[in-house]
Amino acid sequence: MTRKKTTAAQELPEVSVSDDGEVRYLHLGTPWIQGSMLVAEPFEIELEYVQRMMAWLLFADPAKVSKGHAMQLGLGSAAITKFCYKKLRVCTTAIELNPQVVAVCRQWFKLPQDGAKLRVVLADAAQEIRNPMWLGTVDALAVDLYDHEAAAPVLDSADFYADCRALLTDTGCMTVNLFGRASSYERSLQSMADAFGRDALWAFKPTREGNTVVLAQRTPARPKRDELAQRAETIEDRWGLPARKWLRVFKPVAA
After folding, report:
1. Contact indicator for 80, 54 with CB cutoff of 8 Å
2. What's the rounded Cα separation, in Å, for the pair 255 and 246?
3. What pLDDT is stored for residue 2 in this prediction?
4. For residues 30 and 12, what is the distance between their CA atoms, to the nearest angstrom?
5. Contact at 8 Å (CB) between 204 and 246?
6. Residue 51: is it exposed, middle or buried by C-beta count within 10 angstroms (0-12/13-18/19+)?
7. CA 88, 81, 120, 157 torsion-angle sign
8. Higher pLDDT, 4 or 228
9. What are the pLDDT digits (tens) for 15-66?
10. Rounded-to-integer distance, Cα 242 and Cα 222, Å
């Protein structure tokens, strides 16, 4: 059942919300799902690929996570933004182009209002990430930028990923969702390798829906398997993400 429809600015798609039992979905003018939320647990992450976007936690000191800065390019249904802010208690910034997406997330997806540790910036991500105020400040960058047709990432060049790398702290990580009928995994991976170096890249196997999450480290590191296993256990116990399962489908690209 469609709960709300609202027309965005002139060139932006219509934003709509639908409910299917226990799950609420966000759409941008098409049946494609642009995000989701468990109605009874609005601050959990419902979609598997979005959970995998949190794999940067495998490379972070759990004791220092809440002292960091997480940034999302593309708000979607605000799943990552809400999780970082409410569950991880980290300073969180989201950059979103469409003002109606922000409005719908606040009305229908429990996105809190801005405050001391939460900022939603209405801007073009490609331009905003070049703002000097953000450079070198981001510990976890999530990139999930798709138009209403969800055919391929909107921003996917080596230059764009170089700008993303410049946002990161020395120990920071970027996670990217690669999906769409017009997307090319190898092309996207090469663009990231050009910006970060191939040794900095890790990748999940695709989900059943076809989403492939790639992680890039600002400073390449290869933690030992037992260290990753211990970190995964902590993530699962503390924040409820299926991190033990991640390790079965998550490997360095340049293995």
Report:
1. yes
2. 17
3. 39
4. 12
5. yes
6. buried
7. positive
8. 228
9. 889 888 899 998 887 777 778 899 999 999 999 999 999 999 999 999 999 9
10. 21
